[in-house]
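Predict both folds.
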Amino acid sequence: MSVAAAVIRPVVICGPSGTGKSTLLKKLFNEFPDTFGFSISHTTRAPRPGEQPGVAYHFTTREAFLDLARAGGFIEHAEFSGNLYGSSVAAVHAVTQSGKMCVLDIDTQGVKLIKANHAYLNPLYVFIAPPSLSSLKTRLVGRGTESEASMSARLAAAIGELEYAKSGAFDVVVVNDDLERAYNVLKGVVCEGKTTGDTLPDFSA
């Protein structure tokens, strides 16, 4: 299978923490290792068990992160739960130079910044949604890495992200209710150029 578009567009993957974005992207990269390249973000948070520097994130200090931000080195950056996250110009450039489709995993703050300041990138915006807020909370609890404060912050952020998704800011929505089904929808969009995804669930109930 090859990428359908003649001009390779970056792909922006967005969605609340705990929706399974990393799992979906891992499957995509495993199946198409020569097609996609991941834009590795910078962060000031500490590595979680098993995370390798330069693979999961570029782990850095707050001072170094802010220095790079002041130098215009980020396409987007934001702060969440006291930690800074950002997609650097260099990381995206490294992927595009390799001839691969660049994939960015960012939050809605980052999406807004790209739309406002880097529209020339013309990325494909894909929102990964949970089937319900209760399922999202179950997934976060299952991680075993979230404190009560962190859990509350992530759920509050999720509600904000879902509200933003309702605005039509994304080209395609993928609901991760079943991993294989959701993966096939995602694959159809980014590999085959399909423009139809899922309908965003009603989270107001």
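Second protein follows, with its predicted structure tokens after the sequence.
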Amino acid sequence: MATPHGSTRTHLLSNEQILLSYAADDVQDIVTLSEREELVLQLARQVQEQQLEKALLEQDLESLSGDDVDEQLAIAEREFLEARASYTVRSKATRTVLMTDPILKAVHSKATIPPERALFHLVNRRDVLALAQENLSSAHDLILKQLDELKVANLKINQENQELVRELLELTKDDSSWRERLEDTNLKSQLDQLEKEYRRSKAKWDTMKNIASAIVVSSGLDWANDDTLRALVLDESDD
């Protein structure tokens, strides 16, 4: 199925392409309003803004003074949020009531004006998009669940690989003859590189450990009677 731009998204499944086509812009969604209707909507928005300002101004806020400024600020903020929430609820209830009648007329084929008749297509498309959104949300949740399961499995595999590497090192640490039997030059090169990196890291670690030991010794602390500091200073392990 081609998209509205004429290109075909071959990487999408057929049902995904259908959902994409439903979500695309449609010229039928554009409702043409007269100048009077646009003016009415503009005035309605202005009335709503003025009602919000009025609701906020009518709040009895005490002047901020004295030692309880923080408490008074908290009270003022709470009253502001309550006023805004109350206005929002009333505004949503009003819009819902105003929207219900034309939608019912459009659905039951009793619309008398063009905007009401145009609502029928929009209501149908809204329902289709709501169903598509629900299906996509379910698919998204399923994918997230599968991703979490794969992450857990990947962690287990990494832990198993680490155990196997440790076992391999234990088995081969005293016997280097196995290197001569390797025929894969790439593998030999990788082993050599890893050994070089290990030696560099160990040298850096030894330097840092020696510096730390010198700092402890020269600090004047009684490190000989402290188990942790004594282990740090006297540590001569090659690990």
